[in-house]
Design a protein that fits this description.
Blueprint lengths: L3 E7 L4 H10 L6 E8 L5 H8 L4 E3 L9 H14 L4 E4 L8 H6 L4 E5 L11 H8 L3 E8 L9 E8 L6 H24 L4 E3 L2 E3 L4 H4 L6
Parallel strand pairs: 1-2, 1-4, 2-3, 4-5
Antiparallel strand pairs: 5-6, 6-7, 8-9
The protein binds glycinamide ribonucleotide (GAR).
Glycinamide ribonucleotide binds next to helix 1, strand 5 and helix 6.
Length: 215
């Protein structure tokens, strides 16, 4: 099996990155993690990636003085240097322009801590509590030019409990993130997550995902 050369883009602690790296340590996993890029030199995830022996690069957005296309061109150059085929955004906190999104159309995925299309943007757990939703969760989707938009590959749901705080809810959602992101990358890398219009018709069977859904 030829495994897809995959890069992970991060801005912070990189726990989702860690989940993807762990899954890809299985030689039968259809993607291998060949590169981690951070836009922040102090991102904790960079150390974590190095501990796993994965090459890392920093493309610091502050060095581009607001020129977003130049920032993205620099990222693209590093991706090309490493002959990357798939990109997984994992807590990468920069809004991308159509320049990079279009260059990687169908080959770039993102994880968002909410059940899209609800709660796009930031502070998703706070807003879920404010709105009083009873089910919350996380989504992995193909990246499109709109923020937190694009065909949904997989979702995982958790209950919202009466005594939840944003932190307790975030922790419950994060556990689900760590399950669904490797599953989504697997589906994409082996070509099963096919986009049809606005939807992804994936090869994922109910059995594969039943433990991602509560109750
Ligand atoms: C995760 O909860 C991820 O879903 C979120 O940032 C966190 C990163 O944590 N991403 C977004 O909010 C993107 N819109 P991690 O660095 O531990 O993976």
């Amino acid at each position: 099996m030829i495994r897809k050369r995959t890069a992970i883009l991060i801005s912070g602690r990189g726990t989702n990155m860690g989940a993807l790296i762990s899954a890809a340590m299985d030689p039968s996993f259809p993607a291998e993690i060949d590169l981690v890029i951070s836009n922040r030199p102090d991102a904790k995830g960079l150390e974590r990636a190095s501990e796993f022996g994965i090459p890392t690069a920093v493309v610091d957005h502050r060095e581009f003085a607001g020129d977003r296309q130049a920032f993205e061109a620099a990222i693209n150059d590093v991706l090309k240097e490493h002959r990357i085929e798939l990109v997984a955004l994992a807590g990468f906190m920069r809004i991308l322009t159509p320049y990079l999104v279009n260059a990687w159309s169908g080959r770039m995925i993102n994880i968002h801590p909410a059940l899209l299309p609800s709660f796009k943007g930031l502070a998703t757990h706070e807003r879920a509590l404010e709105e009083g939703v009873k089910i919350h969760g996380a989504t992995v989707h193909y990246v499109s030019a709109e923020m937190d938009d694009g065909p949904i590959i997989i979702q995982g749901a958790v209950p919202v409990l009466d005594n939840d705080t944003p932190a307790s809810l975030a922790a419950r959602v994060l556990e689900v993130e760590h399950k669904i992101y490797p599953k989504a990358l697997e589906l994409v890398a082996c070509g099963k997550a096919k986009v049809k219009g606005a939807r992804v018709l994936s090869g994922s069977q109910p059995d594969d995902i039943q433990d991602l859904i509560w109750p």
